[in-house]
Amino acid sequence: MLEGKRVSRISVRGFAVASATAVTTVGAVVGVAAGHDQGATDRVEATAADTTLLADIPAGQNVRAQAASLTQQADTQSEAAETAAKKDAEEAARKQAAEDATAKKEAADEAAKKKEAEEKAKEREKEEKEQISSRSATRDASSFPAKSSYSVAEVQAMARSMVPGDQFQCFSNIVNNESTWDYTATNASSGAYGLVQALPGTKMASAGADWRTNPATQIKWGLGYMNERYGSPCGAWSFWQANQWY
Questions:
Q1: Which residues, listed in sequence order, are joined to residue 198 by a DSSP beta bridge?
Q2: What is the pTM of this model?
Q3: H helix and E strand count, the chain
Q4: What is the structure's pLDDT at 100?
Q5: Which of 15, 7, 8 is nearest to 51 (CA)?
Q6: Spatial separation of the C-alpha atoms in residues 64 and 10, rounded to whole Å
Q7: Composition bias, kind Basic and acidic residues: at what positions (predicted)?
């Protein structure tokens, strides 16, 4: 503030001196023209001497230089602040992106674990159902009393008691196509015999000596054959559909 006041005084003083100089000079010129050359000359020289007061004006130039320097410093600081703010914003954005990526990965991992757990649960449930289904068929061929003859309904009832529930329909489909549930059915050309058309029929002796007359013995052998060769009656039925034999 002191420097500013000084500038004002210098400016006013310089202006006043310059004005006085101009007026005096004009007057001197007029005086010379009027014939009063000596007095005019003295006044002009005196006024010229007074103009040395303008030497103080360069102080104002220093003030302007200082102001320009301060302005440049302010601009530099402003640019630095903007650069720092931009850098901070970029760093914050980078951290946020990293956090978002981490959260996304964790969510995906959690979803994968949940899906895996659900699949394992379904697999256990399936296995339990298969075990229950297998346990539901507990009757053996020897548990049926021997008879001289059996109706189709009786033979089918035996099969339902011996074949697991989820496999019975496949077993039934094969028997329907092979013998239509006739436990004495014989293929004249090949010699296949019984409900499941064992070829030759003597294979069923491994399940019981009464394989010719006891449908339960034939069912026992047929079920074992399907399980051993195709994994299950349904596996055997899938093969039969594709080849018309099994």
A1: 193
A2: 0.47
A3: 7, 0
A4: 87
A5: 15
A6: 14
A7: 84-132
